[in-house]
Known about the structure:
Layout (H helix, E strand, L loop, with lengths): L3 E5 L6 H12 L3 E3 H15 L4 H9 L3 H4 L7 H10 L3 H6 L1 H9 L4 E5 L2 H5 L5 E6 L2 H14 L6 H17 L12 E4 L5 H17 L1
Parallel strand pairs: 1-3, 1-4, 2-3, 4-5
Helix pairs in contact: 1-11, 2-3, 2-5, 5-10, 9-10
The structure holds cytidine-5'-monophosphate (C5P).
Cytidine-5'-monophosphate (C5P) binds next to α2, α5 and α10.
Amino acid sequence: MNFIIAVDGPAASGKGTVAGALARHYGLPYLDTGLLYRAVGVHAQAAGGLDEATAAAVAQDLNAALLDHPKARTREAGEWASRVAAHPTVRAALLDYQHQFAGQHGGAVLDGRDIGTVIAPQAPAKLFVTATPEVRASRRWKQLIEQGEQVSYDDMLADILCRDERDRGRSTAPLVRAADAALLDTSEVTIELAFREARRLVEEALGR
Ligand code: C5P
């Protein structure tokens, strides 16, 4: 059994923080799959638009250099990512890379929306990380303000709700908790507590 930890959840739920901390703790490589969709969104936008043909062409040619884009972590990149992520051919083009990452010898930690359901349904440990929309909007708002972006909390909350709806409602690989994923609600806990609980859930899942 390969030691894969699948971490899914909505935007700004804390899944990236939890996944990164688990990867460091267990000494596993970590992939933030949202970055793949963000990179496709940024480069498709620059290449002419977020339509399926343009975005799929970008996704097919995605490489490490393209992932390292200064705009990839911005608010608009999150929106573009969620739009291109709804195209089935874009998702298909990114499958191989994610499968290879998940399947590497020794295991891996991946976070995203469909890791436990589509990319690595065989993962022995799955977490679904969540928090209220208000808490998530407030976290993302603080991050963006620190990065120098001008955005109001209300606009951030509207973004989060819109992205949730699009990610949950799409027909291919929608955001959904896998039946065997443990739920981790980070609304009212510190990062340290969330990580401790995540570890406990992983170890419980491995012991089953
Ligand atoms: O996780 P992050 O907020 O960076 O993801 C940006 C967008 O990429 C999400 O809103 C979602 O639409 C898409 N995504 C996805 N599947 C993944 C990871 C991200 O559809 N595995």
